Amino acid sequence: MNGAHFHLVVNHLPIIIPMAALIVLILGLIIKSEVVKRTAYFLFVVGAICTMPAFASGEGAEEMAENLPGVTEQLIHEHEEKAEAFALFNYALGLISIVAIWASWKQKSFAKWFSLLILALSLVVILKGREVGTSGGEIRHTEIRKAGEKSMEKSMDSEDSEKDKD
After folding, report:
1. Long-range Cβ pairs for the range 123-126 (8 Å, 24+)
2. Which of 25, 120, 158, 162 is most buried, judged by most C-beta within 10 A?
3. Domain-by-domain residue ranges, the chain?
4. pTM of the model
5. pLDDT by residue (tens digit) across 103-133?
């Protein structure tokens, strides 16, 4: 398994796990169960941990992808920038979730505020995850690129085919 393959295997986890954790957290808030909320907090921590291999494997994936036709440095750079922001928010969510587990377990009076903070931060993480996932997909999936990028790629492809004719 090369770096690009590993990145493709692990990069979905830090995006999907917070989505599942948010559903669990909302359920915990609805049924007013600290155990269910702690389960959600634990899932947020797992999502943050899964961010580490996904982020670390990005360089290996870049090395493989930068030489592929249709892949531009701009697409890779945009994905890297979004991945850095996403990782920071996901790490923060994981750390705050650890504190929330402790506060809930110890039945601290401020524990209820953590669920609201984590709810809000998880929405940010999910939006950032959508951005990083889309920008990563755009690297190889030309069908989801913005219209301007598609027309630029078509013109580059037509130039290449004309060069091949010569």
Report:
1. 123/22, 124/89, 125/18, 125/47, 125/86, 125/89, 125/90, 125/93, 126/15, 126/18, 126/19, 126/22
2. 25
3. 3-165
4. 0.81
5. 999 999 999 899 999 999 999 999 999 999 8
